[in-house]
Amino acid sequence: MRPRPRSGARAALGVLISLLLAGTVLVSLPATAAAAEDVSTEDARVPSGSGADAVELDTTLHLPASASADAPAPAVVLAHGFGGSKQSVADDARDLAGRGYVVLTYSARGFGESTGQIGLDDPRYEVADLSTLIDLLADRDDVLLDGDGDPRVGVAGASYGGALSLLGAAYDDRVDAIAPQITWHSLTAALFPSQTGTTDAATVAATPQAADAGVYKRLWAGLFFGVGAVPTGGLLDALGGGGAAEAEDGEDTGDGASASGGTGQGVPSFDPSSIDTSAIDPAAVEQALTCGRFRADICAAYQDAAATGTLTPEVAAVLERSSPAAVLDRITAPTLLVQGTEDSLFGLGQADANARGIAANGTPVKVVWYAGGHDSQASERETADLRELVAGWFDWHLRDEDDPARGEDPGTGFQFPAPTGLGSDLGSVQGGSQSVVAGAYPGLDGGEPAERTSLALDGSTQPVVTPAGGTPAAITTVPGLGSLASALGGTAVEIPGQFAAFSSEPLTDAVEVVGAPTVDLAVASPSGSATLFAKLYDVGPDGAQTLPGGVVAPLALSGLSADPTAPTEVTVTLPGIVHRFEAGHTMRVVVSSTDQAFALPAEATVYSVALAGAGNGGSTLAVPTVQGQAQAEGGTSRWWWLLAAVVALALLGVLAGFLWGRRRRRVTSAVEPDGEDVPLRFEGVTKAYKDGFVAVRDLSFEVRRGQVLGLLGPNGAGKTTSLRMLMGLIRPNAGRISVFGHAAGPGAPVLSRLGSFVEGTGLMPHMSGRDNLTLYWAATGRPAADAHMEEAIEVAGLGAAIDRPVRRYSQGMRQRVAIAQAMLGLPDLLVLDEPTNGLDPPQIHAMREVLRSYAATGRTVIVSSHLLSEIEQTCTHVVVMTKGQKIAQGTVEEIVGTGGAVLVGLATAGASADAEADRAAAVLSGLPGVTVEHTDEGLVADLGPQTSRAAALQALVAADVAVDQFTPRRRLEDAFLALVGEN
C-alpha cells in the first residue's frame, strides 16, 4: 500500500512507462515469514453484471489462519492501478492477511484474465463489480459482519484503484473505511486542466478549474489509451474465433506486466482455420482494432479529444461519470487520502478537492503527502512508512474496540515530506527520511485557514510568442518520468521568446512552500483567447534553476483584451509543491506559451503578459506555508546515521566529480592544432539507441575551410542524426566530433561559431522578416552589434522585402529569411538541412549563389539535401552515407569517377566537322579500352577503367583536335545510385 521502488536502470523506457501507468503505489515488499506461512489463497472466477454487460472477474482470496467462523476477521478489498491486475497487489494482500485481514484481490473488467471492457470506474460497471465482491465477502463465515449481508470491509487502491475506492464508498454504504492513493477528484480537471480563477477554499492546495474549457493533457491521455487499447479476446470474437484470450505463462512484475514486458492481458493463441469468415462482424472488428478493451463511448470520447484537443460536453459527460467529484457528499467511510508531490497526472489539487468534499459531510479525513507519485518513485523507506499508515488506518477503523491489534487512533491530521531545496530525485530521499506532521489539514471542515506569505514580484510587460503548430515546445515533464526529465538536463527546457518571467528579490530568509501559490497576471491576446503554462522556479545565486516537482499549471484563457495597453487581469493558481526556497535564492514565475505534454494551438500568435497592477506597485506571489512538527522516521539515532552516510557519499561524490572534471578538462582542453583549417571533423562516431538500432556507425570525415560539403544519403541513412550530434542536440555513444579543433557536445562554447537551419523556418507570419531576425537574435542574449544583421540580409539577397510581413512572402522568401537567420553573427560554420525545399528553379539558382558567396568569404557550409543535381552544382565536396555508414567521400569530380562516358564537343563547324569528328574518334579508339560512338549530341566515348578522362583529353590535344567541350556524361545521381546499390 505504498509506492513500489523500481529498478529503472535496467528497464526499457516503454516498460517503465507502462508500469507507471499502472499507477500502483502499493509496494510489494516481502511479507514476513510468519505471515507467509499462515496465509492461504483461494482462486475463483466471480460472475458480475447481467446481459451484455455480464463479466467474469478473476479473484484471489488471501486467508489468514487466524480467521474462522468462531473468530471472523475484517476484510479488505485491494484494487489495482490502470494496466495492472490482481497480481499487481498480491504481495500487499499477503502482508495485510499476515496482519489478520481477509483480503480479496481481483483483476478489474478488461484487465488481467477478467472478461469485459474497460469502463473507467463507471458506477454501472466497475463500481457495481465492487459491490458484487462485497456480496461475496458477506457470504463467508470467516468475515466479520456488521449486519446481514454487511461485511466489515475496507477498500484501498492507487490511481485507477484509488478512484474505485472513493466511488465504491459513495455508492455502497457497506464500505467501512477507504485508503485511496494518488488518484483523481475530477477526470475532466485532470485531463483538461485550467488553473485560472479564484477559489474560496482556505486549504493549501485548492486549485480552480474552468467549467467548460481546459488544456488537453495530450501525452498522459495518449499513454492511458495506448495501455488499454490493445485488442485481445474481443478481436477473436469479432473474427468468429471465439473465446477470450488466455494469458501466457510468465512471472508478473507486480504492476500487471509480465516478465516479457506485456500488460498482463495475455496473448491470444488460436487456430486461424477455426475462423468462420461468414460470421465476421466488420463493425465489431473495427471496434476491437481501434478501441481495444475500452467501451465504445470511452473510445469515442478519447478519439474526439485527441483529434480536436478541446473539451466537448460529450467528452466531459464521460469523464465526470467516472469522477468522485459529484458523489463525495455520499461518503461516510473514514478516508485516508495519500497523494504524491511529484505527479503531473493527478496533482495535489486533486487530493485537496477530495478532502474538502468528504470532510464537508462530517466524515473523518486524514491527508498524507509523500515524495513521489506517477512521475517519481518514493524511497524504499518512505514506501514502508506508507504501508504502515494504511494498515494503521484499517486497524483503527475496521477492528473491534476490544481487539488488541487495533492500535492507536491515527487521527485526522496532515502529514507531508519535510521541505528541502534539493532537486526532485534527491528530495525524495530526504523526504523519505523525515516528515512534518500538523494537527489538521488547513482549512478543512471549518478549521483554521492556510497561512500565506506574500512576496513582491518584478518584471515588465513581455511579449510571448506562440509558434505555428506549437513547435518547438518547452519541456518540463515527461509522463511517467516527470521531474526526471528535468534532472537529466539540470533544468526544464524553456524556448527563448516563448515565455515571460517575473522574479522576487533574493530571499532574506528561507521560505518553505507547502501547497499551491497564487499570482495575478495581466494578459492580452489578438484573438481574445490564450493557452499558457505557469510554473514557479527556484533560482539559485549562480542562476541555476530548479522546477520543484517538475509540474506546471495550464491556463485556458478566453475573453481577453486584444489591447496590450489594457490587458485583462486573471488570477492563476500555480502547481501544488513542497519545496524550501533557501535564503539568497529568488522565486521566478515563468509563463510560457508551449509545453510538449499538452495539446497546443495551431495558429501562430503573440500574447502580452504582465503582472497585474504593474502600474500600482506590481503584483505579489502568495505562497502557502504550514507549521508542523518535524519527525525523523525510525528514531533520532537512525536519522543521524543516515545523515552521516549521506554526507560521506556526498563527499565521495564531490571528490569523484573533481577528479573526473580534471580528467575531462585535460581531454577537452586539448585543441587540435589544425582546428582553424578543419572546421569539422568526425572521428569514429557511432550513435545507437536502447532498442538496438544503430543510426550512425563508425562515421569519419573532415571538412576544410572554404568548402561546401554535401551530405547525401537515402532516407534513414543517418544524415539528420549526424547533424543533430554536430549541433549538440544528442550525444554519440562513441567517437569524437570536433568543431574548429574543440570537442563538440551539448553546451560546448565552440558551438557559438555554428549557425544552423534545420526542420522548418519557424517564422512568425505577422511579423516582418527583419523583426523575426531581431527577435531571434535577442533570444540569444548576445549584443545586437554582433548580429551583423545587414550583412546577413545582404548575403541572403532579401532586399526591400525584409521589411514586409512574412505572411506575404513566397516559400522561397521564407527559406531565404531562415537562411539569413542561420547566418546571423556570420558563423564560421553554416549547417543547412534541405535549404532549397519547396523552391522553384529560379529560387534554387539564387539559393545556390547565396551558399557559394558565403563560402567564398572563407567560411564553411554543410548542406544536407535530397536534390542531387543541386548538390552537384553547389557543393565542392560530398560525403555519401547509407545505413548509417559512410560509403564514399571526396570532391564531386572524384565521386562521379574517372571512368565512364564523356561527350566530346569540337570547335570545327560546317563540312569539315564530320572529318574532324572522324579524326577525333580514331585518336580515342586507339586508347586502351575506349569505344567511340557518333550520336545526335555529338561524339560519345566510353573510356572504360583503363583510361582516365585526363589521358583521353591529352591525347586529343596532342593530335591537334580542336576540342571545345569535354563533359562527363555520368552525373552525380548516377554515381550516387551506383554507390548505394552496391551497399
TrEMBL record:
Domain ABC transporter: 680-908
GO molecular function: hydrolase activity
Protein name: Alpha/beta fold hydrolase
Signal sequence interval, chain numbering: 1-33
Matches recorded under SMART domains: AAA, PepX_C
Species name: Geodermatophilus maliterrae
Pfam families the record matches: ABC_tran (PF00005), Peptidase_S15 (PF02129), PepX_C (PF08530)
Residue numbers spanned by region Disordered: 242-277
Family, similarity comment: Belongs to the ABC transporter superfamily.
Keyword Nucleotide-binding among UniProt keywords: yes
Transmembrane segments: 639-660
Entry keyword Cytoplasm: no
Keywords attached to this entry: ATP-binding, Hydrolase, Membrane, Nucleotide-binding, Signal, Transmembrane, Transmembrane helix, Transport
